[in-house]
Design a protein that fits this description.
Helix content: 25-40%
Number of helices: 11
Number of strands: 14
Largest sheet: 5 strands, mixed
Shape: globular
Radius of gyration: 21 Å
Order of helices and strands: EEHHHHEEHEHEHEEEHHEHEEHEE
């Protein structure tokens, strides 16, 4: 019996209906930026529906299959989460006091039959060749922040370059310095001159999104475009993403939003990156222990958050015992760095406390998130 079955809520048959899709309970959260509760609610709803589909996937695939097909799921299944939801019911929703977050708690009926067919259609795996020498790529960033202080504009390229370097690290790619000419022609010429397999070119545009109501934090909105440029000058893949972030300092908020937007854009062209750079697993791995796990959905949330961190090539479950799960995270990063990144980008729907052990392993204490009912009125 799969662990995921414990997280499935089977509802009774509706009057007159012969069958009903299984229902999954999920919790989504999103920041309220500039007082825009409507947009925050939409993003929280999307996150909750995505989580429901992730739980449904775990009833169709075994845990090792979920890990092995993480990239395929991110690229092909999860972006279409709403299409697999036959119906959903809001259990409660509202702003979480003093957090600046809007929260949606729902129960969603997922069309697991259609989901299973789509998963079966994409079950063929394509082995990627392992190179004796590492691939090489050039990274270049162009940032715009019209009318914003100079420190905001200055904060974007270093953070963007770091995010792109981490994205390429997942494919064991050596990052080369950017040329003076960051145009498509300049990057392709530099790639040929350096015998690089290609270049990543990011265009970042930032704008302020106002203050977070009830806090001293400022929000920044970033729009990012990411292009994969071939040595012959062709743009073989491109994607766009937008993210918001908030901080007491606008420059830090803009830098965080930049990193998040580029991570999203990178996920959208993950298949093209893997094909171009013939990805091999990065050298090294970090051992992670999850303690206090009582629900499979909580394990899923943490494993998904770890797999989405920059520089992580995969998450492999190694041992399951009551209340404890041991994972192997394929990454070149030390465990402490993973823990710090997970603290900045915590999993949705659970509370985590990260502890670095002397032996180099990472321990994460997991507990369900407290659902706060909206205040009356």
């Amino acid at each position: 019996m799969r662990f995921a079955l414990a997280s499935v809520l089977l509802l009774g048959l509706a009057g007159g209906a012969l069958a009903q899709e299984p229902a999954f309970e999920a919790l989504g959260q999103a920041p309220v930026v500039g007082g825009d509760r409507v947009r925050a609610r939409d993003r929280a709803l999307d996150e909750a529906l995505r989580q429901a589909v992730e739980q449904a996937v775990a009833t169709v695939l075994d845990p090792d299959q979920v890990v092995a097909r993480a990239s395929d799921l991110k690229l092909r299944i999860y972006p279409r989460a709403r299409g697999y939801v036959a119906n959903y019911r809001i259990l409660d929703e509202g702003e979480v006091p003093a957090s600046g977050l809007y929260q949606v708690h729902l129960s969603a009926e997922v069309a697991t039959g259609r989901l299973a067919r789509d998963l079966a259609a994409g079950s063929a795996t394509h082995a990627l060749p392992h190179l004796n020498a590492k691939s090489r790529a050039i990274v270049c960033v162009r940032a715009k922040a019209d009318g914003e202080p100079a420190e905001v504009l200055q904060a974007l390229p270093p953070r963007a370059s770091q995010a792109l370097s981490e994205l390429l690290a997942a494919h064991d790619v050596v990052v080369l310095p950017a040329p003076a000419d960051c145009s498509e022609a300049g990057l392709s010429a530099a790639a040929r001159a350096e015998s690089a397999e290609g270049a990543l070119f990011a265009t970042i545009e930032v704008s302020p999104a106002g203050a977070i109501r009830g806090t001293d934090k400022l929000a920044a909105h970033v729009r990012a475009r990411l292009e994969l440029i071939e040595p012959d000058g062709r743009v073989s893949a491109a994607s766009d993403a937008e993210r918001d972030a908030y901080d007491a300092v606008l420059a830090r908020a803009a830098a965080d939003a930049t990193a998040d937007a580029l991570a999203d854009a990178g996920q959208k062209i993950e298949g093209a990156l893997a094909a171009r750079f013939s990805a091999a697993a990065p050298a090294g791995a970090a051992l992670v222990r999850l303690e206090g796990v009582t629900r499979f959905s909580d394990y899923q949330a943490v494993a998904r958050a770890l797999a989405a961190l920059p520089g992580v090539a995969g998450v492999e479950p190694r041992r399951f015992v009551p209340g404890e799960i041991e994972l192997l995270v394929r990454t070149a990063q030390p465990a402490a760095q993973l823990g710090a990144a997970l603290t900045r980008l915590p999993p949705s729907g659970v509370r985590v406390m990260v502890k670095n052990n002397p032996g180099g392993a990472l321990t994460i204490e997991v507990a369900p998130a407290e659902v706060t009912a909206p205040e009356p009125g």
